[in-house]
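Hey,
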Amino acid sequence: MAENKTQPGNADPVAFLDGVPNERRRQDGLAVLDMMKSITKLDPVMWGPSMIGFGQYHYKYASGREGDALAVGFSPRSSALALYGLTIAPGSEDLLARLGKHRKGAACLYINSLSDVDTEVLGELIRLGHAHMTTGNFTTG
């Protein structure tokens, strides 16, 4: 069975963020890094070349495919800040309704700027998402 392409590595997340060319995305990334570190009480880990994660979880599909993924994290993409692990926990929909300007993908939350959202609500989404992803049951059909 093929190994996941995105694996935790040893690159320095702060050095990665320092290299982000878009000033707003870089500053927002550093702020989210501090938020996630404070809330999860974990050090950031680079997953692949562009994702910063906090904690991890193990998943297993009915097909037999299984692996590990970051519990919560983010990537400062050129078009938006992509946040992972924040949209599937019970209660997240109510928080998303209060978050502010955002888009939701299949497994991601996209925000253009931290100034577009309520950072207290974002913090609660991070807390809820991390708790869910690290204690949930991820055997799926």
